[in-house]
Amino acid sequence: MTSYLRVFPILLVPLALPLTSPRGKGETVELDEAEVFIEFNSTDMDFGIHFFWDGEAWNKMKVESPDGKTVLSVKASRNLAQQGLTEGFFESDEPPTSVLSMEEFFRRFPEGEYEFEGKTLEGDELEGEAEFTHVLPAPPTNLWPTQGSTLNAQAPLILTFDAVTQDLNGNPLEPELYEVVLETENEILRVFSIVLEGDEESPSVTVPPEFLDPGTEYKLEVIVEGESGNRTISETVFNTL
To answer: Are the CB atoms for 140 and 232 separated by under 8 Å?
Structure first.
């Protein structure tokens, strides 16, 4: 009896390798977000500067102004340095214009590119840039309800205000968005907030009836945000029966 040896072909399949190699120590990592912006309250006539960033976990961060000077420096210590931080948000004091004029504020914080420089937990450089401008939206006007008005809590309430079309200097400006905030504080703080597109020609917001209580003071805050991220606020306070 004749025997046969059957030979089966062997396929050599290459192992799948990662498309990218692990990041080496000392590389530069970009922040996901970096912002520097002004918040101007046109009702209280005060303003301040804000810094915000978000990205990979870090334990050191500094922000430099356009002239290369460090204006903010943050360093985590001990167990927090090991855990790391992913976000940073800092809001300056907001002196009234009677104490610090807007011109003085602008000289203190010049326009231009602000550099964010930090260290990740792995020791890599963490960087970002934010373009800072002095262009501020004009304040929202003709807020309804008006300051000091008294309304029936049982009646429907529609918050309204005029669309903003200019900056503080009267130049054309199209807002990025409006944020409308209605709040009251009796035993606890209650807040109703909604964001509207900046191209609304006749901005309005309908308040849910369950939010209104009789005999209560409410504050309406309308925030308009420009393309630069700078924000201008107008406020009114009213009461319900």
So the answer is: yes
For residues 146, 151, 153 and 158, what is the CA-based torsion angle, rounded to 10 degrees? -40
| Number of folded domains that form the chain | 2
Helix (H) or strand (E) holding 221: strand 217-225
The answer to the question of residue 6 being in a domain is no
φ/ψ of 87, rounded to 5, equals -125, 160
Nearest to 231 by CA among 167, 184, 181, 183: 167
**Cα separation, 30 vs 53, whole angstroms:** 11
Decide if 162 is inside a domain.
yes
Taking only the tens place, the pLDDT of each residue in 164-190 is: 999 999 999 999 999 999 999 877 899
Please indicate, yes or no, if residue 222 is contained in any of the structural domains: yes
Indicate the pTM of the whole model.
Answer: 0.87
50 falls within a domain? yes
103-141: pLDDT as tens digits: 999 999 999 999 999 999 999 999 999 999 999 999 999
Q: Which of 87, 102, 132 is the last residue of a domain?
A: 132
